[in-house]
């Protein structure tokens, strides 16, 4: 980190600042230019608050050289992290398809979908029990009962499942959940992230609707700083000025996240597009861009779905899509399943 001092900063203030920084454990390199005086901080600057430095009268600018995320940073962990969920691996060349309905609606529905997607080769089941809905009048999910139905589907099919947590108070209910999803709207619920950091359980962290990749990685950092290193990042489309799709899938986020971080990156084409027919092309594009997995919504009767029917594939539509996903993943040298 480089601190640029004001041109006529009083010497005693500069000395005090240097003493404070040394006290915090940093080695200091000073440099005097024609008009500019710089202080270089050597050490782990991830905990330094830039704004606190900027509040100092003697300081003109602060430039970060090192990214503020450390645990998630590929620089300190060059190898891909591989996350193993009951034998289903994400990352390091391993590729997974997570599939199922947006919401768990009934025993019949979840068992039918679980059977269908499992048969087509999806490695994990998805289904929301606690749902973040834009309208308070929309279906809010089955809650704890929905979790029970996911457990039933897991027992019947052997598929581990992914389901969304909305609030830290739900953690006791999620004790045996295979992957806990943090939805886009909760990406910066820092109290929730801190509590999930105390668990030793995989977390699928979705990118917020209008968050940068650095912000996504800082949210991953909240979980990892607590000691939970099993974080899977998820690109699910961001808000742009475009209205013909529900969101805009940020394809460039995939190679960029893979460069910035060692964590696996999964793509959700269903929420990105919001349209059934677009799930396949976006899935294939995501694989080509380097994704480590996909999360795809499938419903036996999308027209009757209690949430996200317009983007849900039927099991019959999922079959050929899955076939092309398999071929594309193989073409790009990914190990599926
Ligand atoms: C979901 O996965 O059903 C969901 C609500 O996703 P997101 O948080 O990405 O909107
Ligand atoms: Mn959904």
Element layout with pairings:
Blueprint lengths: L1 E4 L5 H13 L3 E6 L4 E6 L7 H5 L4 E5 L19 E3 L2 E3 L3 E7 L6 H13 L4 E3 L17 H14 L3 E5 L13 E4 L7 H8 L5 E4 L6 H13 L5 E5 L17 H8 L4 E3 L1 H5 L5 H10 L4 E5 L17 H17 L3 E2 L1
Parallel strand pairs: 7-8, 7-14, 7-15, 8-9, 9-10, 10-11, 11-12, 12-13, 13-14
Antiparallel strand pairs: 1-3, 1-4, 2-3, 5-6
Helix pairs in contact: 3-4, 5-6, 9-10
Give short descriptive properties of this protein.
337 residues, binds manganese (II) ion, elongated, 31% helix, 8-stranded parallel β-barrel, alpha/beta, 15 strands, 4-stranded antiparallel sheet, 10 helices, binds phosphoenolpyruvate
Please provide a written account of the structure:
- It is a single chain.
- The protein is of the alpha/beta class and 337 residues long.
- The protein has helices at 11-23, 50-54, 107-119, 144-157, 190-197, 213-225, 253-260, 269-273, 279-288, 315-331; strands at 2-5, 27-32, 37-42, 59-63, 83-85, 88-90, 94-100, 124-126, 161-165, 179-182, 203-206, 231-235, 265-267, 293-297, 335-336.
- An 8-stranded parallel β-barrel has the order 7-8-9-10-11-12-13-14, surrounded by 5 helices. It has a 4-stranded antiparallel β-sheet with strand order 2-3-1-4. Strands 5-6 form a two-stranded antiparallel ribbon.
- The protein is elongated, with a radius of gyration of 23 Å.
- The structure holds phosphoenolpyruvate (PEP) and manganese (II) ion.
- Residues 102, 271, 297, 307-308 line the site of manganese (II) ion (MN).
Query: Please, what is the average pLDDT?
Result: 97
Please list the strands of the largest sheet in the order they lie side by side.
7-8-9-10-11-12-13-14
Profile the largest sheet: 8 strands, parallel, barrel
Q: What general form does the structure show?
A: elongated
Cα end-to-end separation: 42 Å
What would you call the structural class?
Answer: alpha/beta
Oligomer: single chain
Low-confidence stretches: none
Strand content: 15-25%
State the total count of DSSP E strands.
15
Q: Give the cofactors and ligands.
A: phosphoenolpyruvate, manganese (II) ion
